[in-house]
Amino acid sequence: MDLHITIVQTELQWQNAEANRGMFSEKLNAAAPQTDLIVLPEMFTTGFSMNAPDLAEESDGPTLSWMQQEARKHQAVLTGSVIVREDANYYNRLYWVSPDGSYETYDKRHLFRLAKEHHTYTAGNKKLIVDLKGWKICPMVCYDLRFPVWSRNASNSYDLLLYVANWPKVRSQPWRVLLQARAIENLAYVVGVNRTGIDGNNHPYSGDSAIIHPKGFHLLETSEAEGVHTVRLSKKELEDFREAFPAHLDADLFSLDSKL
User: pTM for the complete prediction?
Assistant: First the structure.
């Protein structure tokens, strides 16, 4: 079965969750996508901020409620990451919210050392693989992209690898190249959703959101412009390619201790 994915590339209002939720509602209403999955950037309510004490929501806070409302309205899964407080820790937490209100979470494993993210947030230690319309999807967050062992597609355990990000313009070349590499090496579709604009720390973002075929070519390649884009992914193309080029059968076997 084919899968329709909608990505939202946009500027974010710095540390203003209410304004950002309203902005995303307007963009989704205007685009009125007929889709299965809507993907928002990393920390989509605040921008990439280390001010967790002032910005963090409880795990069942207003942004989760908003995501449940939007998922129900559009009859599509909605995903993106937000700042969450739980058990005296802060997490860069991705929510995967279904139209019926149920949800799953993934906490960013690799915390961005250059921004001292590891001094504020607690790293996750569990991958998430979810089912959607017969597709297995593995969502991750930004800096995770640089670590191929964590995203390794052992025994074709997923069909689509997804990254939500606040990836700055100064490192746009690695972003573009690594997204293609993850698709090629894992025999899977890859989606990368990044923001645009300038954040409160004066860091510019070039967008460059992309949807990439398992063979490594782009199904969607954006620039810095804001936009809401929907692309259809073919499960048959994926299965035919894996059958014709079964590189996964020659992969090295190893196990990963997921505990930090």
Answer: 0.96
